[in-house]
Amino acid sequence: MEFFSIIKNRRSIRKYKTDAVPDDKLKRILEAGRLAPTAANRQPFLLYLIRNPKDNKKFAEALKQKWALDAPVIVAVFGDPKGCWTRSFDNKKFHFVDVAIAMDHLILTATSEGLGTCWIANADPDKIKDALDVPDHFEFVALTPIGFADESPMEKQKKKFDELIVEK
Q: Looking at the whole model, is its pTM more than 0.70?
């Protein structure tokens, strides 16, 4: 699929087939996240791969969006505020930005591989971290189920170009 077409046609999938994600596809998806650009190339994140998420009882209990458990794989992403680049002017830490870029790469690559995803941030960070035994200093940012879509969501209305682009 052509890259702009991937961006334009990507949808949030909330219903998944039970078919396994082939390992070669999954490896490319995770590699895309690993290769994402980060501030000062610090790569201040961890990607947690949860195969068969229904079988991980503690994780399944922690996840609010139970429909996501139908996907054969879930990737949860955690940022490291201690290891990230910090902007000197205001001491703003960039781990959330770096994680967002990694998630975007991961999700767009999944789309190019014919798989569905859904960016989920509405989860209890402490429960998710505890369920996956994540080191204390890492912060939960988001997760995504990954699998073959069992639905075809309609295109969502987006703001018009001139509503978002400011030219000076």
A: yes
The residues near 41 (Cβ < 8 Å, ≥ 6 apart) are none
The domain 3-149 is placed in CATH, from the list 1.10.3720.10, 3.90.1150.10, 3.40.109.10, 3.40.50.150, at 3.40.109.10
- Cβ neighbours of 45 (radius 10 Å): 26
Here the tokens at position 103 are: 């998630």
Q: Return the amino acid letter for 30.
A: L
DSSP state of 82: T
Which pair of structure tokens corresponds to residue 88? Answer: 């000197």
What are the pLDDT digits (tens) for 8-49? 999 999 999 999 999 999 999 999 999 999 999 999 999 999
What are the CA-CA distances from residue 37 to residues 122, 153, 164 (Å)?
25, 30, 24
Amino acid in position 124: D
Identity of residue 90: D
